[in-house]
Amino acid sequence: MKANPVFSLYIPTKLIFGCGEIKKLSSEKLPGKKALVVISSGTSMRKYEYLEKVLAQLRLNHVETLVYDKILPNPIKEHVMEAAGICREEKCDFVVGLGGGSSIDSAKSIAVMACNDGDYWDYVSGGSGKGRPVTKALPIIAIPTTAGTGTEMDPWTVITHETAQEKIGFGCQQTFPTLSIVDPELMVSIPPHLTAYQGFDAFFHAAEGFIANCATPISDLYALEAIRLIYKYLPVAVADGKNLK
Question: What is the pTM of this model?
């Protein structure tokens, strides 16, 4: 850490955390009345009724919904463009990312392309991306069902361009989620080995944040506390995935 650091902190996302707090989706002021809900192509969101819980709460808030359920574990540009087209055609007001990092990342990218012309890679910086500025995007709501990536509180999204064989991270002010609801009750279905993987994902993020040259006194507080909590509780969570504490 530099002796006299100069830094800024900008986290515009409203976070609601706690067991059962998914119900707040029915009473929070939301950024529109029609949402595209983005989930993975897997079965868990429906199997464990997480999708129905979210749709039910949105209905209580008088929000009309459409579901896009093609997202892959490594999300691809083709699906981002397809879902963004649906957003425009159906005149969606906002995007909800429900699931793991791939679904929430995709929701951010879809939100960008629902409001901007051309191709997603026109806005990506790096690789063959053209780095065009993003001036607007649909509001994003993030509801994670896994722990580890932290994408619900940051602007970053990682998408794969299959034909160019590029996998690039991208983010801007417009891709911060407006609202994130982290409800541990949506995570008890995760099997032990995936709980372990996600815990180490969180650990690596925290360790990297602490040793990075751009670390700040504030980010160090988050990083060190995350490492402490992971050290104490990850073995407990792996041993008993239903231990909500």
Answer: 0.95
- Cα separation, 223 vs 27, whole angstroms: 32
Residue partners of 106: CB distance under 8 A and separation at least 6 = 38, 71, 75, 79, 80, 83, 97, 157, 159
Calculate the alpha carbon distances from 240 to 185, 187, 190, 197, 236 in Å. Answer: 13, 12, 10, 15, 6
User: Could you tell me the domains of the chain?
Assistant: 14-187 (3.40.50.1970), 190-245 (no CATH)
Tell me if residue 221 falls in helix, strand or coil: helix
Q: What is the CA radius of gyration of the chain?
A: 18
Count of C-beta atoms within a 10 Å radius of residue 184 = 16
Q: Which two tokens stand for residue 94?
A: 């906002």
Residues 6+ apart with CB under 8 A from 168: 124, 125, 126, 127, 129, 158, 159, 161
Calculate what percentage of the chain has a pLDDT beyond 90: 94
Q: Has residue 55 got a pLDDT over 90? A: yes
Phi, psi of 242 (to 5 degrees): -95, 5
